[in-house]
Amino acid sequence: MATDKVFEALASTPRRQILAYLSAQQLTAGDIASRFAMSAPAISRHLSILAAAGLVVGERKGQYVLYRLNPDSLLNTLLGFAFEVCPTGSQLKREGAELAKK
């Protein structure tokens, strides 16, 4: 069931952090991995789970895949609101926006 996949995806703190980073900008898996102390395969697995839940989409650009939030997901609309009001989420979103400027 699709709802189960969404809750499975949101059950993980790193996946919620990835969603917060992606709420500010599109990122490659390498960009995402650089923000965590975990292996590239672990990041790839988290991204796969998020994609299977319909929360993120990946688009190939040359040799890279750019990940972004799925704009057609009502859940992402609600998450965007939550990231604005949640102290941790808004901090991660600001951090992602600052890193995007560099």
Automatic annotation (TrEMBL):
SMART domains: HTH_ARSR. SUPFAM superfamilies: Winged helix' DNA-binding domain. One of its GO terms (molecular function) is DNA-binding transcription factor activity. Residues 1-89 form the HTH arsR-type domain. The keyword Iron does not apply. Keywords: DNA-binding, Transcription, Transcription regulation. InterPro entries: ArsR-like_HTH (IPR011991), HTH_ArsR_DNA-bd_dom (IPR001845), HTH_MetalResp_TranReg (IPR051081), WH-like_DNA-bd_sf (IPR036388), WH_DNA-bd_sf (IPR036390). This is Winged helix-turn-helix transcriptional regulator. It comes from Aquipseudomonas campi.
